[in-house]
Amino acid sequence: QERNVILETFDFLRRGQIDANLENYDNNLQMEKEYDFIVVGAGTAGCAIAARLSENPKWKVLLLEAGGPESLIMDVPIVAHFLQLGEMNWKYRTQPSDRACLAMNNNRCNWPRGKVMGGSSVLNYMMYTRGNRRDYDRWAELGNVGWGWRDVLPYFKKYEGSNVPDADEDLVGRNGPVKVSYVNWRSKIADAFLEAVQQDGLQHRDYNGHIQNGVNYLHTTTRNSTRWSSNRAYLYPLKGKRRNLHVKKFALVTKVLIDPTTKTAYGIMVRTDGREHKILARREVIVSAGAINTPQLLMLSGVGPAQHLREVGIKPIVDLAVGFNLQDHTAPAVTFTTNATSLHFEDFADPTLVNRFNRQEGPYGSPGGCEAMAFWDLDHPQLKDGWPDIELFLVGGSMSSNPAISRAFGLKKIIYDSMFAEIEDKELNAFMIFPMILRPKSRGRIMLKSTDPQKYPLIYSNYYAHPYDVDISVRGVQKAISLINYPGFKKINAKVWNRRIPTCKGIEFGTRDYWECHVRHFTFTIYHYSGTAKMGPATDPAAVVDPRLRVYGIKNLRVADASIMPEIMSGHPNGPVFMIAEKAADMIKEDHGFKQ
Ligand SMILES: Cc1cc2nc3c(=O)[nH]c(=O)nc-3n(C[C@H](O)[C@H](O)[C@H](O)COP(=O)(O)OP(=O)(O)OC[C@H]3O[C@@H](n4cnc5c(N)ncnc54)[C@H](O)[C@@H]3O)c2cc1C
């Protein structure tokens, strides 16, 4: 067996070397002075757009990424939490709040973002959802022609390479670059969750299919227990084969160059290899820097709210509501103890797990312990096919299963010690249910702190500015807790972990007021920041881009990433961002007369 471990470890290292060789293709790139298209940010959207645009061999495309290469170790699903502690995370934090994030250091929530090839698709938990068809019909209803469900469905199918065997066959994509699979490892806790939810009345079904309201084990953006980032999906197959696509890593774009007279974007400034370069774009600049960096870069370039820009010392070129409309999904996790075996950190030290991982078995393939999800329309429980307002997702471990979790969230020590240390000390089996609100009504804002592109922008999450968000979160918590009354969860002796939050002590445990206090403390972001360069019709004063994703008032400049969502969709957004990217690439090709 020992020999096996050594051989299997070599095999893993060999796979890692293959990936490293692919990344190394970009190392000696000499950037040219001019390209047809410049794509800023190699995240979920950026990799897809650059790959699609460079399908035209006559176009030269430059993809610029502030972070470095992806590596195989980042793509072992169980290590997901740890990535947030490394250099591949921008490590943003929200501004302090007195009504949310109260359990976090200085009342500030950590907001991780990928700074690496693949962007946040390398940091994420790989949970794969499309959202609800009504989300997109709503986008269309807001005036975004071409974004209704029937319009966007072909793009979902185009990028999906799903091998989920029981997916609704007429809706799923089987041959696209983004691989989607079930996880090969499941705990008894996940089985119990599925049972309890069905006993509560939901059906076991493909929540990415015709009806979203239902429960299932996770669909994940993985194949063979390996993370399928946008970099792996779209760029690895092209390495060494597509000479008209240039990829530059460790390249921070500091400004989009815009002629103030003609209001035309004509290039970018980028900091790389120790100096500042000016690179020109013959056709377009496409900003895909994500919902925090995209508004920052636009504002640094003179595109944003004129008054705010003047206050920080930037001359506005066009007055637009950049940075407003910030949305996110939060989920105040509830902890339960059980007599079923949950994830424990020590278990991962077993070296034979590498063997099992190479054979696509075992817990290394689990995306940070996330295992199953269910969707409810709490306001319309009688509807079988409602528009869900709450998702409950199950993690087969607790805050103390892994030291990286509480650090990643930035939990206050006093909170951790009084609530979770006992689980760790007594090695109890415990799991968490995250009640994620799907259609929040609060809106936050990204603002510039400085004209220095290396200084982080200010993030005002504005969580719970709207009372609906508190209310639906509390109802989500109550829904999660109600599940333990069903035989599925009784079988594993699931019990709510009732250690009190020290700063909620005056409030009786289990009452609505207590759960509100809980919600305001454990405002866990699920990292779905979006909406900060809102897509909308010309009549919408809050719109930054039009339905073809062109920035209003500026020629040759588009935004294509999570920023453009007018309203956040009801699920996890990585898939929808791929859809946005695929559609953006097609619109750009069309606008520049390229037919395939
Ligand atoms: C920890 C975490 C967990 C998540 N879990 C899930 C999940 O399980 N399922 C799911 O569907 N979604 C999840 N998400 C959200 C999802 O991954 C994002 O919504 C999606 O990746 C956003 O894509 P994007 O293209 O808008 O931005 P990103 O993927 O963040 O890409 C932006 C890229 O631009 C680069 N960049 C930024 N500024 C500059 C600049 N000035 N110059 C050059 N490059 C720049 C960044 O480094 C980054 O690589 C998670 C996100 C995180 C952070």
From TrEMBL:
Keywords, ordered alphabetically: FAD, Flavoprotein, Signal
Ranges where the Glucose-methanol-choline oxidoreductase N-terminal domain occurs: 290-304
Pfam families referenced in this protein's UniProt entry, alphabetically: GMC_oxred_C, GMC_oxred_N
UniProt GO MF annotations: flavin adenine dinucleotide binding; oxidoreductase activity, acting on CH-OH group of donors
Active site as annotated: 528 (proton donor), 572 (proton acceptor)
SUPFAM superfamilies for this protein: FAD-linked reductases, C-terminal domain, FAD/NAD(P)-binding domain
Cofactor(s) needed: FAD
Gene3D superfamilies the UniProt entry points to: FAD/NAD(P)-binding domain, Glucose Oxidase, domain 3
Binding-site residues for FAD, renumbered to this chain: 116, 253
Annotated family: Belongs to the GMC oxidoreductase family.
Protein's recorded name: Glucose dehydrogenase [FAD, quinone]
Organism: Bactrocera dorsalis
Gene this chain is encoded by: LOC105231608
